[in-house]
Amino acid sequence: MSEESANSGGSGGESTLTVLLAGGVNLAIAVMKLIAGIITGSGAMLSEAAHSVADTITEVLLLTALKRSARPADRVHPFGYGKERYFWSLLAAVSIFASGAMFALYEGVSTLFGHGEAQSTSPLSYIVLAVAFLLEGTSWVQAVRQVVRESKAENQSLGTYLRLIDDPTPKTVLFEDSAALIGLLLAFGGIGLHQLTGSEIWDGVASIAIGLLLACVAYLLGRTNRGLLVGRQAHPRLVRAIRDHLSGAPEIEAVVDLQTMLMGTDQVLVCTRVDFDDSLGAADLERACVRLASELTEQFHDVTEVFIEPVPRSDPELRATVLARYGDVAERWSNFRSPQ
Length: 340
Fold this sequence. Notes:
By secondary structure, this protein is mainly alpha-helical. It is 68% helix and 9% strand. It has two domains: 2-230, Up-down Bundle (Alpha-lytic protease prodomain-like); 236-333, Cation efflux protein, cytoplasmic domain (Alpha-Beta Plaits, 2-Layer Sandwich).
């Protein structure tokens, strides 16, 4: 566990590189798509231009997230500013929906019902889409490299890593770049079918499909950041490791309760209630708490704050509180047991 935490230490710099590359690519692509969309009047091309504008705004928000979340703790925010990354990443998800999905859906409906501008087919559209696909592919490869490298460092499958990730930045870039590549294929298909059939319906259908795709991506990213902002527990493997470490301490008879929360990327708050050996004196108890907190922060680099509360495991109110939170399932909290 300590090894995987250490490996995550350099993710901040790589996240910045991933975001900067994606931002530069999206800005260049947005300009190309907008010019081609204005010249051809293609709804699908204009939808893709809005898509790239949304992605560019997203990268600006992600850069803001990386910078502001790195500020040190102060008197007003004693636990630091780590959750700023989640807030700005949530705004990035909203931007994808508001700037990209809504415009694409509007453009598609306007085209289908004949309220859009007259459209023409031009080789320019195909050239722009091809160049955009190559540029987006470059950004996508960088995002894939980062998440694959980090998932391997933590010995997790890619799906598990993305589901439990505490840094939404590479996930956001990966999802938006994947959506961008799929959107380009949809635009290519819509423009191509429009040229083959002479019907603008296909262009409108492609725009609507792009809008729905962006709405789906925005929802998935919004759900991820909502969970992180509300306060998600640390990775289950880290929680188990912390529990095992505490249970192995000679002064502790039982770990009664263990709560963790992500305070930011690679920042975990640990609050635990433990039943100490009753033979310990007050001074021994104090030294044990200090030593255990130090051991947890040294062994698990993601752990930044530790609070240890001595409690009697036989207390009925405390027992009811723990069982209400975790359920009356013995194997889920095997350390919470009545005294022999």
